[in-house]
Amino acid sequence: MVERLREASVEGRLTLAELTERTEAAYLARTHAELAQITADLPGGAPAPGPRPVKPMGKVRTWVVAVMGDAKRNGTWRIDQEIGAVSVMGDVTIDLREAEVRTPEVEISATCIMGDLKIIVPDGVDVQLSGVTIMGDKKVQVVEAPAGQNAPVVKVKAFVLMGDVKIIGDSLATPIKRGWFAWSEWWWDRRKDVRQQIHQDIRQSIEMGRQAHREMMQAHRDAQREFRHGFRDAMRGEQEIRREMMRDGREARRQARREERDAWRDSRRGDPPPSSPY
């Protein structure tokens, strides 16, 4: 089923948003009748394979360039090769939702220098972002498909210098007009259930992480408290030993002074010093 949908996309019968929605619906279908609804408006089989077109040597790209200006690519358009996007002190927006994708996956090579580059994709695609960032930012804000689903792939390799590259999904972009089919109602309901479960799992994971963090911080505070108590006890013991040594020293000095005074008095009276018994 998913392969048939991909073939329909390559044939130009489905946009990237439609391919993503039908792929997700295929994984959420529960009966053969529901699966049949998803492809009811598509031809029954793939066309006979013809001779493959000869690919030109080297990389061929569709370019979207903005130098100190704005450049947008949206609406219905065709993707049959890699996309090159360049933003130099400008703004570039590439909307892939209504594009007809004639390749197995969408590849974008992006260069952003002191500018902004935004790529809009349908929620549910598999976004793979890589590249180098120097004094800039690149991030993905897309609700991706659950693990295990063979979702459409969008690969972005970005070089960013003092700029921003953002890949966002439907939930953060201006909505587009979508078709309504026989399968749309149950797909929408189950999609909401699945995403609610995903959000619940995420919240539980966050809460578990917070609880683990709280326990770790409590253990750290307990260890610090025990260390302070042990250090305080050790310091008190050391101070007690010093005070004892000081008392002994003072007592020894007082005893020595008493002996010196006694000897001085004896010498004043003329008493002979005590004779040694030996």
Précis, in short:
This protein has 278 residues and is an alpha/beta fold. The protein is 41% helix and 25% strand.
- Give the strand order, joined by hyphens, for the main sheet: 1-4-7-11-9
Beta-strand percent range = 25-35%
Average of pLDDT: 84
Q: Indicate the percent of residues in helices.
A: 40-55%
Ends: how far apart? 120 Å
Rg on CA atoms, Å: 40 Å
Oligomer: single chain
Structural class: alpha/beta
Q: Write the H/E string, N to C.
A: HHHEEEEEEEEEEEEH
Query: Helix segment count?
Result: 4
Low-confidence stretches: 45-54
- Count of separate structural domains: 2
The total strand number stands at 12
- Report the major sheet: 5 strands, parallel
Shape: elongated
Detailed description of the structure:
This protein is α/β, with parallel strands linked by helices and 278 residues long. It folds into 2 domains: 61-174, no CATH class; 183-272. Helices cover 41% and strands 25% of the residues. The chain contains 4 helices and 12 strands. It has helices spanning 2-10, 16-28, 32-38, 184-269, and strands at residues 61-67, 70-73, 77-79, 82-88, 91-95, 99-101, 106-113, 116-120, 126-134, 137-141, 153-161, 164-168. It has a 5-stranded parallel sheet, with no helix packed on it. Strands 2-5-8-12-10 form a 5-stranded parallel sheet, with no helix packed on it. The longest helix is centred in the last third of the chain and has 86 residues, at 184-269. The chain is elongated, with a radius of gyration of 40 Å. It starts with a helix and ends in a 9-residue tail after the last helix. Mean pLDDT is 84; it is low at 45-54.
